Amino acid sequence: MSESDQQASAERIEVQRVVAAPPAAVYDLLTDPQGHVDIDASGMLMDATGERPCAVGDSFVVHMDRDALGDIPDLHEYDVTVVIESLVPDREVSWSIVGRVRPPIGHVYGYRLEPVEPGADGRERTLVTSFYDWSAARPEWKAIFPLIPEQSLKATLGILARTVVRRGRAG
Predict the structure, then answer these.
(1) What residues have CB less than 8 Å from 35, skipping those under 6 apart?
(2) CA distances (Å), 35 to each of 8, 114, 141, 157, 164, in order?
(3) pLDDT tens digit string along 45-68?
(4) Long-range contacts made by residues 95-99, C-beta under 8 angstroms, separation at least 24?
(5) Spatial contact of 110 and 85, defined as CB atoms under 8 Å apart
(6) What is the pTM of this model?
């Protein structure tokens, strides 16, 4: 592995899980601003306002509460703007964050979706890859990463799996 490949992998986390739902259902959840709140394992996302994104550059606001992490005593409730970086129906969604820090730090979160063989019960399934990438973050901020540990991304995938199935039953 080259030095640049090692640096890139040291600046990116990816986790995967097979979810018992079709890619369209997972994509629908991931492009719903409230869906971000519903699946958050960190406990920081309290609510969201704004419309479902339809194109790269679209945005919505997420209302945060850092007290859930207890890592920054003076940072409690605040808002961030989620700015869509990639949006491929039923395949991928990613976003950057614009918060209090200007210019933005430059990290990206996202999901890739791949259909996989149906389960034993015949239900459609999706391989969901969650990624968190700070390779393009501004150099002066790189030392703070990763802000969200791999375990939190895995926990969010577990909540996503449960939530997308429940939404499917309700719909």
Answers:
(1) 28, 29, 163
(2) 29, 19, 28, 12, 9
(3) 999 999 999 999 999 999 998 777
(4) 98/59
(5) yes
(6) 0.89
